[in-house]
Design goal:
Elements (H helix, E strand, L loop, with lengths): L2 H47 L3 E3 L10 E3 L2 H16 L7 H6 L2 H10 L1 H14 L5 H4 L8 H8 L5 H9 L9
Antiparallel strand pairs: 1-2
Helix pairs in contact: 2-7
Length: 174
């Protein structure tokens, strides 16, 4: 094989290898940018959901942000803790909260969704003034417990009676 052919083959080989590296780097870079963008959406979602403030700074875990609990956050956690204490099937992520790992806190909350239905039925049955069997055709809104924990939503009068009967809420005078 002549030197010229060898030179062309080596050049072609180096061109293909460098092109492969460039294309790989480009796609990996785009993938990482997409993942970072999705993580930022998760951060905003979690911050809004749990009424957290956050600042862009680096913490001990090298996260590019720090969540700061607010009084709204404390209210959410208190309601969640109260429900979890009375109905242990609802997991309360004490460790993740102490570590400020709010993405994990959110994962735990979402994993509780299937248990919320069961607990909601139990709440109605344990409340002396109201029971699911007494409701007849009235359907219990399955999101009541989730909305109560996150937003203290007590617009449903029957559910409010249950919350009062179970000492989660105080009666309103008015």
């Amino acid at each position: 094989m002549s030197k010229k052919k060898r030179y062309i083959i080596v050049t072609l080989f180096l061109f293909i290898v460098s092109g492969t590296f460039f294309v790989s780097y480009f796609f990996i870079s785009k993938s990482q940018q997409f993942e970072e963008k999705m993580e930022m959406k998760d951060i905003h979602y979690v911050a809004n959901r749990y009424q957290l403030d956050y600042v862009y700074d680096t913490n001990e875990n090298n996260d590019p942000f720090i969540f700061i609990a607010t009084s709204g956050t404390e209210g959410i956690l208190a309601r969640w803790r109260n429900v979890s204490d009375k109905f242990p099937v609802i997991e309360y992520p004490e460790k993740a909260i102490k570590e400020g790992d709010w993405l994990t806190v959110n994962e735990v909350f979402v994993s509780n969704y299937s248990n919320f239905d069961e607990v909601l039925t139990d709440m109605y049955d344990e409340a002396p003034g109201v029971s699911v069997s007494q409701l007849g055709d009235e359907v219990v809104n399955k999101s009541l417990l989730r909305r109560y924990i996150l937003y203290r939503n007590t617009d449903d009068e029957t559910f409010m009676k249950v919350l009062i009967d179970l000492k989660f809420e105080e009666p309103h005078n008015g």
